[in-house]
Amino acid sequence: MEEMLVSLKLREQEKDRRIKRVLQKSDEVDVVEEETHFTSASAHILIGEIMVCNRELEKIKENVNDIEKRLNNIIDVLGRI
User: Fold this and answer.
1) Is 33 strand, coil or helix?
2) pLDDT single digits (tens) 34-62
3) Cα–Cα distances in Å, from 15 out to 3, 7, 25, 51, 81?
């Protein structure tokens, strides 16, 4: 996920560099933004995936906590024997 964000950032930086080059060549050039594959729809999809992953991580954390409690209970019982 982090790699994807870095890649998107690099694309944005490259787009900015291209626009600056066009502006430097002539003050009379109309700059038309290049079409990008990253849209608000794709951003919503990524945000949705992040939310799903976050919920799954929370469930995993809860399961780990439950297992730790059970292990501690078993250790306590064994310590009394």
Assistant:
1) coil
2) 666 778 888 898 899 999 999 999 999 99
3) 18, 12, 16, 29, 70
61 burial type by CB count under 10 A (0-12 exposed, 13-18 middle, 19+ buried): exposed
Answer whether 21's CB lies under 8 Å from 29's CB. no
Distance CA 81, CA 77 (A): 7
Q: What phi, psi does 38 have (nearest 5°)? A: -90, 110
**Domain extent listing, the chain:** 1-29+40-80
pLDDT tens column, 66-78: 999 999 999 999 9
Count, in order, helices (H) and strands (E) of the chain.
Answer: 2, 0
